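Recall that a protein's primary structure is simply its ordered list of amino acids. Everything else, from secondary elements to tertiary packing, is in principle encoded there. The following example makes that idea concrete.
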Amino acid sequence: MADISIVQAHGLSAVAAREAAQKVADKLARDYDLACRWQGNVLHFERSGVQGALTLQEQQARMVIKLGFLMGAFASTIEAKVAESMKKVFAAV
């Protein structure tokens, strides 16, 4: 298994941060066929071989992804794509 952890700082309001997180979730869902659901300020996502959460905090968003054996081979590619997506949506003011 491979673990990915990404932290992205932001200066967004709670509402704007949630909208940004939803954009990231929508992209993940499209790109990796993930099921996503909100539980408070945490967006959980999963599919076979992938599970994780995007936690919204006041000044940052923290993404943790656990990849199974087969998906672990793509860890660096997935991490780069997710980090870029988070940077784009959370940096937007």
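Helices lie at 14-32, 69-72, 75-91. The beta strands are 2-9, 35-39, 42-47, 50-56, 60-67.
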